[in-house]
Write a structure and sequence with these properties.
The complex is a heterodimer of chains A (207) and B (252). Chain A has 207 residues and is mostly helical. Helix content of chain A is 52%, strand content 3%. Chain A contains 9 helices and 2 strands, in the order E-E-H-H-H-H-H-H-H-H-H. Chain B is built from 5 helices and 10 strands, in the order E-H-E-E-E-E-E-H-E-H-E-E-E-H-H. The termini of chain B are close together. Classes of the chains: A mainly alpha (207), B alpha+beta (252). At the A-B interface, strand 1, strand 2, helix 4, helix 6 and helix 8 of A face strand 1, helix 1, strand 2, strand 3 and strand 4 of B.
């Protein structure tokens, strides 16, 4: 359940409002694909982190609640549908890449939020599709969603699912993500082939 | 006082501007938070990637910003659609859980807190029109020319300083109560559409002063603060309740 962030709900001529005078409370259903307003996370460019000189210590809620009332449900549905229709395989073109690119170019914040939430919902419930989504993200230029891609790859590496860990390594490989160098060298990898891939990848990034 | 909890928040304020989200830090914390079944989420603070975790199953969010570490609990929709949501529990349990988490984070990051805060927000949803009117009359004096019954939004807030003792600390605290009258919609799901709620939102915020930025709170001090916070909140709540006459205004 989320409540729109303070300042957006007042009936005020100075504050842009999406729904004048109405706060919307959204109940979040656990373990489901995201729908409108159920999103719990995002990356934001401006997050005022400190209560500073004010008496109130209440944290800003905008990073949780900023995207109520967006095109999020449609995108989430399309992502899930494309991933169900056809697995994302190495060396094969998949329509998910084009969908992600278009949506990120059109509405970067909401799209990134939907991609992340969809990925997190799939983790543990449908690791195959989560890996597919990660592979789709890996095919995008890293400038388009670098922070989110890094977070998703980290989640993938921490997974017990081999396919997800492989997809995470594919993203690190594709992006030449040097922030993973330390992790690639220290993380124990039980799968022999992936351990080898991980070590070679670390060497390549280091060069 | 309220029948629908909207948010519980526990915060420690720290100097952690240099702390960034990195894959190895994320995985280390993920391991520490294993029992919460959280996953990393991407949060940026003015372009700086910060460590953040969220659990879609439990409604918990943990965010490590440059100036504060927050643990937040938000309600989830219960399978039986009943409110309040099953995951919230009481504020006391939340404070216990959040304090443990925050201490783990402080230990991992090697930070010491200079300010502590405990916040809860809830919605009094089951008020009749008369009940709402009573609360408004108790809290606000409106200009005569304003048609009293047509006032559909209002804010009420007070803050006061109070010396409080917890653990080895004797600190001045800010005690803040907020009451907001809003037109609200409860959006239960896309199929049925939003449901209008005639509610008022109540917020209670208790925190140590921001002016003292000396990193001084020990683990025991933090535990003591969050152990005492629920009773301090109850006290503030009782005062607000008496002022609002919300018991009499409630239609339950």
């Amino acid at each position: 359940m989320t409540v729109e962030s303070p300042g957006t709900s007042r009936t005020s001529t100075s504050t842009p409002t999406k729904q004048t005078g109405t706060e919307r409370i959204v109940l979040k259903r656990p373990c489901s694909a995201p729908t409108q307003g159920e999103l719990t996370s995002t990356s934001v460019s401006e997050l005022s982190g400190s209560a500073g000189m004010q008496a109130s210590s209440s944290a800003p809620v905008s990073y949780l609640d900023a995207y109520v009332g967006s095109s999020a449900p449609q995108l989430a549905g399309e992502i899930l549908s494309l991933l169900a229709n056809e697995p994302v395989e190495t060396g094969k073109v998949h329509p998910i890449t084009d969908l992600l690119r278009r949506s990120l170019q059109k509405d970067p914040s909401v799209s990134a939020l939907v991609i992340q939430e969809t990925f997190n919902v799939l983790i543990g419930s449908d690791d195959g599709r989560a890996a597919g989504l990660l592979r789709g993200v890996a095919r995008l230029p890293k400038t388009l969603l670098r922070q989110l891609g890094t977070t998703m790859a980290t989640t993938g590496l921490a997974s017990a699912d081999v396919d997800l860990r492989q997809a995470a390594l594919a993203l690190i490989d594709s992006w030449g993500a040097e922030e993973f160098l330390k992790l690639l060298r220290t993380r124990p990898e039980p799968n022999r082939w992936l351990a080898l891939y991980s070590a070679r990848l670390a060497d390549r990034i280091n060069r | 006082m309220y029948d629908i909890p909207l948010r519980y928040l526990a915060s420690v304020f720290v100097d952690a501007a240099s702390l960034r989200a990195t894959p190895d830090a994320t995985i280390t914390l993920l391991e520490r938070f294993k029992h919460l079944e959280v996953l990393p989420i991407s949060v940026e603070e003015v372009g700086i990637p910060r460590l953040a975790f969220s659990s879609s199953d439990r409604g918990i969010t943990v965010v490590l910003l440059g100036g504060r570490f927050d643990v937040t609990l938000r309600p989830l929709k219960a399978s039986d659609d009943k409110l309040p949501a099953h995951n919230m529990g009481d504020f006391n349990s939340f404070c216990t859980m959040a304090a443990e988490l925050l201490l783990q984070i402080l230990d991992y990051t090697g930070r010491r807190a200079h300010r502590l805060a405990a916040v809860q927000e809830g919605l009094i949803s089951r008020l009749t029109a008369d009940g709402l009117s009573t609360v408004r009359q108790r809290l606000l004096t409106l200009p005569q020319e304003v048609p009293q019954e047509d006032v559909f939004e209002w804010d009420y807030r007070f803050a006061y300083r109070l010396q409080r003792t917890f653990g080895e600390y004797d600190e001045t605290t800010y005690n803040i109560a907020t009451v907001l009258r809003r037109k609200m919609q409860l959006e239960e799901d896309a199929e049925h559409g939003p449901k209008e709620l005639a509610g008022i939102q109540v917020g209670l915020d208790l925190n140590t002063l921001p002016e003292n930025t000396q990193a001084r709170f020990s683990s025991d001090g933090i535990s003591a603060f969050f152990a005492s916070a629920p009773e301090w909140h109850n006290d503030l709540q009782r005062r607000l309740e008496a002022l609002m006459e919300v018991g009499a205004a409630h239609d339950r």
